[in-house]
Amino acid sequence: MYGKIVLILCGLCVLTANIHCKYQPNWESLDSRPLPAWYDEAKFGIFIHWGVFSVPSFHTEWFWHEWHYNKTEFVNFMKKNYPPGFTYADFAPMFTAEFYNPDSWAKVLENSGAKYVVLVTKHHEGFTNWPSKASWNWNAMDVGPHRDLVGDLATAVRKHAPNVHFGVYHSMMDWFNPLYLQDKANNFTTQEFVKNKCMPELYELINNYKPDVLWSDGDWETTYKYWNATEFIAWLYNESPVKDTIAINDRWGNDARCKHGGFLNCNDKYNPGVLQKRKWENCMSIDRGSWGYRRDANLEDYYNTSSLVAILAETVSTGGNLLMNIGPTHDGRILPIFQQRLKDMGEWLKVNGEAIYKTRPWSHQNDTITPAVWYTSKPDQGGTINVYAIVLNWPKTNTLILGAPLSTSSTKVSLLGYAGYFSYVPLSQGIRIDIPSIPFNQMPCQWAWVFKIKYLKN
């Protein structure tokens, strides 16, 4: 009987004074592991897509895939710009990164207000941005930059961006790796690719760089069992050097995505718009058309700052984190338009971060009367719940009517970044906030204004 009790407790990963439990390599056990608190509190991160695809920088980071399968515009692009016989591997020496300054990147990240960064260490093309022993002559040390791009950024972030957690993206698949193609031809009944490339890479990344986020991808063609996902995650949670801090996503097989793992990001640009039962992440790109840098982008292809702030407000209000992507150039530059957007986000968060970081969803996500208003909440040191109304459009008159908050005689209303309290009038359903005339040069920010409301009934 005692043995059965121990087994049950260990399956749930319960620790007692007499029992040392480990997570078991099954989803029931692995999904019982709490998500590290830092991840939920962070709310905002930066994604960085960088690789050999940054060299052709045409249309998409899926360039090799589209060219390989003879998509017309990609075939014509190559015929027009490159000699006959040119292969995708010939792009690798052009991935030079001569302007790559990881210290500068780290400062851009710190100033953006982001609390974590996820660097693409290997995309579906298979090229590793670190000197992987499992990727001979198809890595950033052997060809191209001749340096450890991942290690350099990890070091810089930890030195110059102390408020930013370092994370890595890793694609489990390689589109055209012969071992992967053979496993695929065998209906994934063999695992030569997993044993010889995918898993060795993952262990290298964790042991060498000790990331706080492991963002898995490239899983969708087969199941988690082919990838040995549960065995790896059990090691990650039980024995790895980041077992207590690591946050992982859900992309571990086509039968695990949006079901298992740590936080859920389901599909690219996943943004359900309503409160979710589990922690989730909205990964999206400032360039609507591509994750990697592309030379054929136009100004209108980039989200403006107002739209990005709105996406952040919607995402956080409904319980998610926002992972906002940029794509550096082949020579290691972050384009000024990306720098500007990140700087803008940082400036907005300096004023309004109180309504984002460490917040929780409130009883309402949207207002019941006024459109384009998103709510978050957070207890103060005394335990009082502060409610934050993130108003995307400044009122055309000097009044703001909110239907969701129910006031009391003690209610106080203020505007983040502006001194003093505002008067208000209780309504049968909601409140009317009277806004004083604020000079333009005293407006706390340019996009989305946050009204902080204390001592509500609800």
UniProtKB/TrEMBL annotation:
The protein here is known as alpha-L-fucosidase
Keyword Hydrolase carried by entry = yes
Q: Give the species this sequence originates from.
A: Owenia fusiformis
InterPro entries noted in UniProt: FUC_metazoa-typ (IPR016286), Fucosidase_C (IPR031919), GH (IPR017853), Glyco_hydro_29 (IPR000933), Glyco_hydro_29_CS (IPR018526), Glyco_hydro_29_N (IPR057739), Glyco_hydro_b (IPR013780)
One GO biological process term is: glycoside catabolic process
Which transformation does this protein catalyse, written as a reaction?
a neolactoside IV(2)-alpha-Fuc-nLc4Cer(d18:1(4E)) + H2O = a neolactoside nLc4Cer(d18:1(4E)) + L-fucose; a neolactoside IV(2)-alpha-Fuc-nLc4Cer(d18:0) + H2O = a neolactoside nLc4Cer(d18:0) + L-fucose
Q: Where is this site: May be important for catalysis?
A: C283
Q: Say which family it is in.
A: Belongs to the glycosyl hydrolase 29 family.
